[in-house]
Write a structure and sequence with these properties.
The protein is an alpha/beta fold. Helices cover about 40% and strands about 20% of the residues.
């Protein structure tokens, strides 16, 4: 069934003023059109931003616990519809159903967490140096936010941005990926059903060039939260800095798993398979590099190849499928091009390395899980984010060498070490230059109650998700209030 999708602006579903549309296609079966979607333009953006601007003045005055009640109701609706929404994620994005359901669960978790923040949004009260005076800091909303999200987590990542933005008292213009617009629309519909007032949450569909950048640079937008490629994120950050806009960018990764000679190899192999081929390698936290101690390198490689070779490709809605498709034809071509580069660079192709077009996969964008060995650190495939089911295995002499190899990339999002030596893991915790570090676990699996983000070219600005230093710091600004009830002029820091 093909859905006809519309923009949602100022409380109304409506077509784009451009009268143009685009298709959302199932990457596992290109004959399956998931939705017909508006291809919006600058006029649509102007109307949506103005609606959000007008709504902000009322929404910021709604008590935060009341805002939380709406988000709590959205969490309950998401829970009730988890199965159908998870199946939609799988159909529109391609990830296998357990991951599609996990995508929705992450949105549920974030909704409950941020609903609770409506009764917290904590500031600070401190004693004054003067008598009959008190001092406090409070969080206040910033204004109108542009939220720009990718296709690989079409429900979870929008939830990471929308719920903290709304609980903080901001209004939103949400621009989802043009590859997963139906998932985004269903999330917005749930928030509307939960009671979000008109104009507080607006949804605009379209391409990045025609909608994403014009929205982010709109003069009435106060802040931008973006998840996507490093090139686009850095461009938006430069533009926003000139125009004094708040911006947070969660960008790319070239994540690493370190396997030491004392590691439990069965566990490390399982983590490498999940990190490298979960979501078909289409995660910013995917483990596209495995750095292995030379003493166990050959044994690990054999076990890794054997495990990956057993993965079954197919439609993610089938229980027999382990790995789904990549998102579209252009991404498939990019990944296959990187594989050819790896061959030319002299890396040894151990398994995979080709498109898979057999049986039920004939009409989809499938690539066999791919492993390269004999990879040197300066090779293109060891440095650049491929964003597909391609893993490089690199040999290390010792822990110091492994950590140096791990850090020798421009990204710094997620890393992992497998070792039974607590001293090794302590050194890795200290020296790995990434925003997320896992001990005896894969590079995938962040939890929403802690901030999410990376170093170097993996992130700019505030972190996402919850916890101290998380998304609430992005979506609020601090106001400090001094109240003097002495009835006379008191001068702070002035000697009497």
């Amino acid at each position: 069934m093909t859905d006809t999708i519309k923009n949602y602006i100022n409380g109304k579903s409506q077509d784009s003023l451009s009268d143009r549309t685009m298709e959302s296609i199932n990457p596992a079966n290109t004959r399956d059109i998931v939705g017909i979607v508006p291809k919006s333009n600058q006029k649509d953006i102007d109307i949506a931003v103005n609606a959000a601007r007008d709504a902000f003045h009322k929404w910021r005055l709604v008590p935060a616990p009341k805002r939380g009640e709406i988000i709590f109701k959205a969490a309950e609706l998401l829970t009730k519809r988890k199965q159908e929404l998870g199946e939609l994620v799988t159909r529109e994005m391609g990830k296998v159903l357990p991951e599609g359901l996990g995508d929705v669960q992450e949105a549920i978790d974030m909704a409950y967490y941020m609903a609770g923040e409506g009764r917290r949004l904590s500031g600070e009260t401190v004693p004054s140096e003067l008598p009959n005076k008190d001092c406090k800091s409070v969080r206040v909303p910033i204004g109108v936010f542009a939220l720009i999200t990718p296709w690989n987590f079409p429900t979870a990542i929008p939830a990471w941005k929308i719920f903290p933005a709304l609980i903080s008292g901001n209004t939103v213009v949400f621009k989802p990926s043009s590859y997963t617009p139906v998932c985004a629309t269903r999330l917005v519909e749930i928030l509307v059903e939960a009671g979000i007032p008109e104009g507080v949450l607006n949804l605009i569909h379209g391409t990045g060039d025609e909608v994403g950048e014009p929205l982010a640079t709109h003069p009435l937008i106060d802040g931008v939260s973006f998840t996507g490629s490093t090139n686009v994120g850095e461009k938006l950050a430069r533009i926003c800095s000139v125009n004094d806009k708040e911006i947070s960018c969660e960008m790319g990764g070239k994540n690493v798993i370190i396997v030491m000679d004392d590691a439990k190899l069965d566990l490390a192999v399982e983590g490498a398979i999940w990190g490298g081929f979960g979501t078909t390698g289409q995660r910013c936290t995917a483990a596209s590099r495995v750095v292995v101690h030379e003493k166990v390198h050959d044994k690990f490689l054999d076990m890794f190849k054997n495990g990956a070779s057993r993965l079954r490709l197919g439609n993610g809605l089938k229980k027999t499928t382990d790995v789904g498709p990549v998102i579209n034809e252009s991404q498939m071509k990019k990944i296959l091009d990187y594989i050819e580069i790896g061959k030319k660079e002299g890396a040894k192709l151990e398994i995979g390395g080709e498109a898979f077009k057999q049986g039920e996969c004939a009409n989809g964008y499938f690539i066999r899980p791919t492993i390269f060995a004999d990879v040197h650190q300066k090779m293109c495939i060891a440095q650049e984010e491929i964003f597909g089911p391609v893993v490089c295995v690199i040999k290390a002499k010792d822990l110091t060498d492994a950590i140096n190899l791990a850090n020798d990339v421009k990204y710094g999002l997620s890393s992992s070490i497998y070792s039974q030596d607590v001293n090794n893991t302590a050194i890795a915790e200290r020296d790995l230059d990434t925003g997320l570090i896992y001990i005896n676990a894969s590079t995938i699996g962040a939890e929403i109650q802690l901030p999410f983000g990376g170093t170097k070219k993996s992130g700019l600005g505030h972190r996402e998700a919850g916890g101290r230093g998380g998304a609430l710091d992005m979506f609020t600004k601090w106001k400090v209030i001094y109240r003097d009830y002495s009835g006379k002029l008191q001068k702070a820091q002035i000697d009497k």
